Amino acid sequence: RAQAGIAQSELDDAVAIAPIAGVVLVKSAEVGEILAAGTTILTIGDIERPWLRGYIPETHLGRVKLGTRVKVTADSFPGKVYWGEVTYISPEAEFTPKQIQTQEERVKLVYRVKVSIDNPNQELKANMPADAEIVLPEAGDSKPG
Question: What global pTM score does this model have?
């Protein structure tokens, strides 16, 4: 019985419990590998509610609020629209990231936003390129998109 207790204790120590619900996106280690402390063994993600990072110019900042609706399209699904909402707006400006295509766009100050997207059929995948259009309220409309 003592050996069974020790074996159960070792098994309990070998189980990793994820801090969030999701699915395994990347498996970085195999059974039997010896790993250093802090080594990533799995990457998990919530594919039912993925998000994208976007940037808005300072001139639009006053019109974009948390909860503002966003229309998202992905190259992989031409003509299909996914809907999301702004769930984060950076509190500080930054220069447009260098991966933006034109030099004119790269020198402007922008605010980073996070858009959570509805993905009920789990079609959208991690790092999939997408375009987002923030649905700004019309002049005189008190509610965001």
Answer: 0.67
Model confidence pLDDT, tens digit, residues 16-38 = 788 888 888 888 988 888 889 88
Contacts of 110 (CB under 8 A, 6+ apart): 55, 56, 57, 58, 93, 94, 95, 96
Nearest to 24 by CA among 10, 6, 44, 5: 44
Domain boundaries, the chain: 2-45, 51-134
Q: Is the dihedral of CA 57, 86, 92, 131 positive or negative?
A: negative
State how beta strands 109-117 and 130-134 pair.
unpaired
Q: Which two tokens stand for residue 86?
A: 């702004």
Q: Is 14 left (phi over 0), alpha (psi -120 to 50) or beta?
A: alpha
Q: Does domain 51-134 have CATH number 3.40.50.1820?
A: no
